[in-house]
Design brief:
With 622 residues, the protein is of the alpha+beta class. It is built from 16 helices and 17 strands. It is rod-shaped, with a radius of gyration of 67 Å. Bound molecules: adenosine-5'-triphosphate and magnesium ion.
Length: 622
């Protein structure tokens, strides 16, 4: 089964960031810890080696000193020219001067074993000659080897109060005598203080038998423990190069040890440190690094979360806005402040919504126009049918009324009645004719037309009506005006409709009508008809071109003037527009196309304020 888990982008970004940070931090931590560890390791090796070499040298010179002093003892004990008392006194003096010596024994083949003891030191700690003899019996000296030239040193501690070593050397004695062996029992004080110098490093001195001779921990000297755990002890003591280092384990603890041979007596000095203690700082460093890494991860995840949130917030907004747009809300706009790809996406989105909005508006307008034009077309067809049916009977009524009037005396009641019939029939005929024009039943011919002539004809027709209503006409015609392609009678009818409307809107108050005709460009001519009447309310401006829309009282207007005018201008491939401010007046603007056959302006003699009257006045007044 496939799990449908949604994983938001912000968490993906956070995850990537965390993976990268973890990888970088762990690499750095690992590398640093490794470097530090290997550096520390070589430092510990160097240090143990150095201490071992140094301690070996010190032990060497110390033992050399003991060797010389032992020879002094031997010379005195062999001296046969001295009396016994004198010897005893001198030996006492030697024990006093060489205070580390507690006993000296001479193994001479001629005179046997001669031993002297420093009783001043032995008696207070409960030791006597018997103890020494018993010990030596238990651990006999390798006298033959020593006689052959070997120096022998061993841990010969008898009491914990007297950690001591025995130094045995060959001694020739007087000439002609078989060589003997002289041994000295020497307190370990100085060697122990040498081993106990460092509390961190464990220092020990091993005798030829691999037994501890001196150690940081005195107990181990007293116990005379053999060092069997040290690897290759033989090879270590035979090292030519002083200061060898080794890593080994003892009782489950890892050690780093440095070793150096003490030349005198073939002893071995060892300096060791537990790895745990040696690399304590490495462990502490790794701990610190881990904490720092953890802190870095924490900070970076917080920062990453914040960053991812900031980065994806505009995307979320975009997605929300896109949902709104899909529901038809094109007013949505997004803050496009960032200068990155998301910012430009937001800008494009905003551009898209405003484009959609304006297209929707244009679509609605086009739809409204379509509805309007369909309405007009339907109405036109209906009107055409009615007009066609009504026109013939109406012509009959008018004809018979006029015939009757001719046969009746003027002033009789019947004459008056039939006059009313004639007048109303004429009105009906005019309405029918308008309807038919609206329905475009008439076939009109287009020809090159001079708009200034047409305007002059229209003005001549309405001139009287305007002047009795105290309306002044101000004209401004471009002298170089091109001809238009159109029907003069129809255009004239439009101009008359507009001027009569203006006059009627002023309702008897004096006013002005400005009529301006100008050449816009090489394609269009514009006619401006501006009045200073009451203006038109915004609410009804959209309805003015609808058939039968009128604000006039019943019987005063049919509401067909503007709809017929609209139809005519449309037929001429032009436009008719209204600009009106209530209380200030109304301006109608008609735009008509220039004739393609004759672009040149017509020659005319008209001057400002002078009218050219047409021979055939328009019959399209209402
Ligand atoms: N110049 C104008 N100033 C104010 N209102 C106007 C003006 N021209 C037209 N109108 C308004 O437009 C309406 C429609 O005009 P239209 O010419 O179509 O019909 P009418 O004048 O009412 O009737 P008809 O023209 O058939 O006698 C008018 O009733 C009037 O309210
Ligand atoms: Mg009118």
């Amino acid at each position: 089964m496939k799990l449908n888990i949604r994983f938001p982008i912000r968490y993906k970004i956070l995850l990537i960031l965390l993976v990268v940070v973890t990888a970088v931090v762990s690499t750095i931590t690992f590398t640093m810890a490794n470097l530090f560890h290997s550096d520390k390791r070589s430092y510990i090796h160097d240090l143990t080696s150095l201490i071992a070499v140094h301690s070996a040298k010190e032990a060497d010179s110390l033992l050399e000193g003991y060797h010389e002093r032992l020879q002094v003892f031997a010379r005195l004990m062999y001296n046969e020219s001295l009396l016994q008392d004198q010897k005893t006194e001198l030996l006492k003096g030697l024990f006093k001067d060489f205070d580390e010596f507690v006993a000296v024994t001479l193994y001479d083949p001629k005179s046997g074993v001669v031993a002297v003891y420093d009783v001043n030191q032995l008696i207070p700690i409960g030791l006597d000659r018997e103890r020494f003899d018993a010990y030596r019996e238990k651990y006999p000296l390798p006298l033959e080897k020593i006689r052959a030239g070997e120096i022998y040193i061993e841990n010969s501690t008898l009491s914990e109060k007297l950690p001591s070593l025995t130094l045995a050397i060959p001694y020739k004695g007087p000439a002609g005598r078989t060589p003997g062996v002289v041994t000295g029992t020497i307190r370990l004080d100085r060697l122990l203080s040498l081993a106990g110098r460092s509390k961190v490093f464990e220092t020990f001195l091993l005798d030829g038998q691999g037994t501890i001779l001196a150690h940081t921990d005195v107990k181990k000297v007293i116990e005379r423990l053999p060092v069997d755990w040290l690897p290759d002890i033989e090879s270590l003591s035979n090292q030519q190069s002083a200061g060898t280092t080794k890593e080994y384990e003892h009782n489950g603890t890892g050690f780093v040890g440095g070793f150096s041979e003490v030349k005198f007596g073939s002893l071995l000095v060892g300096v060791q440190i537990a790895k745990k203690a040696a690399f304590l700082s490495t462990k502490a460093l790794i701990n610190d690094l881990l904490w720092v890494a953890f802190g870095l991860l924490l900070v970076s995840s917080m920062f990453g979360l914040l960053w991812a949130y900031r980065l994806t917030r505009p995307i979320q907004r975009l997605s929300h806005a896109a949902k709104l747009v899909s529901k038809g809300n094109f007013d949505v706009q997004i803050d496009a402040t960032s200068r990155d790809e998301i910012g430009s996406l937001a800008t494009s989105f905003n551009h898209m919504t405003s484009e959609l909005k304006s297209r929707e508006k244009a679509l609605i307008e086009a739809n409204e126009k379509l509805v309007q034009s369909e309405k007009l077309s339907a109405f036109g067809q209906l009107s055409a049918g009615i007009a066609h049916e009504v026109k013939n009977p109406l012509t009959g009524i008018l004809g018979y009324a006029q015939l009757s009037l001719r046969k009746l005396d003027n002033g009789t009641p019947l004459h008056k009645n039939i006059s009313v019939i004639e007048k109303e029939a004429k009105r009906c005929k005019a309405i029918i004719e308008n309807l038919m024009k609206f329905a475009r039943q008439e076939q009109v011919e287009f020809q090159d037309t001079d708009l200034i002539d047409v305007a002059g004809d229209a003005l001549a027709i309405v001139d009287h009506q305007l002047s009795i209503n105290r309306i002044k006409v101000i004209k401004h015609f471009d002298p170089e005006l091109p001809l238009i392609s159109g029907n003069a009678n129809q255009i004239q009818q439009v101009l008359i409709n507009l001027m009569i409307n203006a006059q009627q809107a002023m309702e008897g108050t004096p006013g002005t009508i400005a009529l301006r005709i100008r050449n816009c460009n090489d394609k269009w001519v514009e006619v401006w008809l501006k009045d200073n009447g009451p203006g038109i309310d915004k609410d009804i401006q959209d309805k003015l071109f609808e058939p039968f829309f009128t604000t006039k009282k019943s019987g005063k207007g049919t509401g067909l003037g503007l709809s017929v005018s609209y139809g005519i201008i449309k037929e001429h491939n032009g436009k008719i527009l209204i600009h009106s401010t209530p209380g200030k007046g109304t301006t109608f603007v008609i735009v008509l196309p220039i004739s393609r056959s004759k672009q040149a302006s017509s020659e005319r003699e008209t001057t400002e304020g002078q009218l050219a009257i047409s021979k055939q006045p328009s019959s399209a007044t209402r």
